[in-house]
Design brief:
Elements (H helix, E strand, L loop, with lengths): L6 H11 L4 E5 L4 E3 H18 L6 E5 L4 H13 L2 E5 L5 H11 L1 E6 L1 H4 L12 E4 L4 E5 L2 H8 L1 H8 L19 E6 L9 E5 H15 L6 E4 L6 H14 L2 E4 L6 H11 L3 E4 L1 H16 L2 H8 L1 H18 L6 E5 L5 H9 L4 E6 L6 E4 L17 E6 L8 E7 L5 E2 L3 H7 L6 E9 L5 E6 L4 E2 L5 E2 L1 H9 L4 E9 L2 E8 L1 H6 L4 H16 L8 E6 L23
Parallel strand pairs: 1-11, 3-4, 3-5, 5-6, 10-11, 10-12, 12-13, 13-14, 24-25
Antiparallel strand pairs: 1-2, 6-7, 8-9, 9-18, 14-15, 16-17, 17-19, 19-20, 21-22, 23-24
Length: 554
């Protein structure tokens, strides 16, 4: 990939160079080659022009990952409009609010989510276009209606012979120009519009290319939602700029779907949230060794290397056996699962960041990363820990550099709180940084629990250990008065398979509490466990929305 400062030039060059290569495939559906993507972009430019869309106008996209979603996004930015990707998992009211707050003139929407929305709640939209077939489902503009009805005719007039690679010619952006407004879905429940300039996207792409080094024609599976910046940049935009073949599962990536689809796709790069890797290892891999014989064999020097190689081979097969590395990001990784992955030499790594850094702050290759670390500071960025002893005493992690946002859209107060007068972006995460520059995240500043005795407790550390115990799907540690309470959503499927009733399951979870407390300091021991009847509500990054559960009592 050429070292260009222009994202749009990288996209243009890749389309021309990889004209006849496969670009995007909806799994078990249609495939677009790069020339097909270019044709869709050109038609969309004609539509925008006739509809009166101007440079800097906002265009929103909301739908599941698909080839048409990505082609539309590329059309928006190469035209000069600002893309507003919206997570399809947002509730309808939140989507309406984002569309209105962003001042979007048009909305492209997936057919699965459109039925939940109300166009009357988005009065300033001039048009709504359905992503599946690009049907105009709502038009409040005669110009837009005309443009959609005469689109093929106008395209034919412009290119009477054939649309060729040499016809692809897009504008060039300014590095500080606004490219994307990405609305966060934070654990505090308040959604803010993060303004990302082109320089932040290009900086991230160059870092990923230097660390991953994908080649044209190689496959990427896009599992992370494109409405979130991690999937948008790490999978999609990076992939397009190198001429990769992007695959969209178009459904929830369950362990079964992953095993089935990855055997066909054989991806070279896989980026996902920790929950997916943890579920696959917990259900498919660990049961084969999580018994007395398996543990014994793993610890016998003569046998263990062969056993580890067999386990590693099985784990690699689940993910298609062809990948360079699995990149885990968006939420903390379970340290016990991570320890097991290291023991079998499984090629995983961690990417740490936030929407406000588009998204990367820390990331290292799998063969460079240190256990429980999220890697070192990425290219074009600086980090520091606000602590009197950053190597031993956690403090807030702050960063500055090319990846940092312009600010929050129409919210200067929140911008001033996030970026200080010296330009440091405050992550809200507590961390330590060792002498080699490896960064270790300890937990969210706002999640830290302060006990009556003055002890600082990071609930994520306790939850990670509890989540790895039998019959626990997920957990949440809260402070109720002076006591730590564990809310546990149990693994009812596992309990049912073992013939357990509710009373026996409660006894097993209580035994977990007792066992875990034996390895915890007195001040961070769990006083009581409360079983929770359903999965905890989460953000798109699969982080639990903690604020919803803070008032639960024993």
């Amino acid at each position: 990939m050429e070292k260009q400062d222009s994202l749009i030039q990288l996209i243009e060059n890749s389309i021309q160079k990889n004209w006849d290569l496969d670009a995007m495939t909806d799994y078990k559906g249609a495939t677009l080659q790069y020339k097909d993507v270019a044709r869709k972009i050109e038609k969309m430019h004609i539509l925008f022009q006739f509809a009166g869309i101007k440079k800097g106008d906002k265009i929103a996209l909301c739908g599941r990952n698909s080839a048409n979603w990505t082609a539309t996004f590329l059309s928006v930015i190469t035209y000069g409009a600002v893309a507003v990707p919206i997570l399809h998992e947002f509730k309808a009211d939140n989507v309406h609010n984002v569309v209105n707050h962003s001042e979007a003139r048009m909305l492209f929407v997936g057919d699965q989510v459109w039925e939940n929305y109300n166009e009357a709640a988005m009065p300033h939209l001039e048009g709504i276009i359905e992503l599946k077939n690009f049907d105009l489902v709502v038009s409040r503009s005669e110009k837009l209606t005309y443009a959609r009805e005469h689109l093929n005719e106008e395209f034919g007039k412009r290119y009477p012979c054939r649309f060729r690679a040499e016809n692809v010619s897009y504008r060039r952006e300014d590095p500080e120009e606004l490219a994307i407004i990405n609305y966060t879905s934070g654990t505090t429940g308040y959604s803010k519009g993060v303004m990302l300039p082109y320089r932040s996207i290009v900086s991230n792409i160059h870092h990923i290319h230097d660390k991953v080094g994908l080649r044209a024609g190689e496959s990427i599976v896009s599992m992370l939602p494109l409405g979130h910046i991690f999937g948008l940049v790490f999978d999609f935009l990076y992939g397009v700029t190198v001429g990769a073949h992007l695959w969209f599962l178009t459904r929830m990536p369950s362990p079964k779907i992953i095993a089935e689809s990855f055997a066909v796709i054989r991806p070279r790069v896989i980026a996902c949230v920790p929950l997916i890797v943890e579920k696959i290892f917990k259900k498919n891999i660990l049961p084969k060794v999580d018994n007395k014989l398996g543990k014994l064999l793993l610890n016998l020097p003569i046998i263990s290397d062969k056993i580890k190689e067999q386990i590693r081979h099985q784990a690699m097969e689940v993910f298609g056996s062809n990948f360079i590395e699995i990149v885990v990001g968006g939420a903390p990784f379970n340290p016990e699962v991570e320890a097991f992955l290291r023991k079998i030499n499984f090629p995983y790594t961690i990417a740490y960041g936030m929407t406000e850094a588009a998204p990367l702050i820390c990331h290292s290759r799998w063969d460079e990363i240190k256990y429980t670390s999220c890697g070192k500071t990425v290219a074009n960025m600086e980090t520091k820990v606000l602590s009197h002893d950053p190597e031993n005493v956690p403090g807030e992690l702050v960063c500055k550099g090319m990846n940092v946002m312009l600010g929050y859209f129409k919210n200067p107060e929140a911008t001033a709180q996030a970026i200080d007068k010296d330009g440091w972006l405050h992550t809200g995460d507590m961390a330590i940084k060792d002498a080699q520059g490896n960064i270790f995240i300890k937990g969210r500043c706002k999640n830290m629990l302060l006990t009556a005795s003055g002890q600082n407790i990071y609930p994520e550390e306790i939850e990670a250990r509890l989540n790895n115990m039998a019959f626990v799907n997920e957990s949440l540690i809260i402070l109720s008065g002076s006591k730590l309470i564990a809310l546990v959503y149990p693994d009812n499927e596992e309990a049912f398979a073992k013939g357990m009733d509710k009373r026996q399951l409660e006894a097993a979870i209580e035994a977990n509490r007792v066992e875990l407390n034996q390895s915890l300091p007195a001040y961070s021991q769990i006083a009581h466990v409360k079983l929770y009847p359903e999965e905890f509500e989460k953000t798109a990054k699969k982080s639990i929305k903690r604020y919803l559960y803070q008032d639960i009592k024993e």
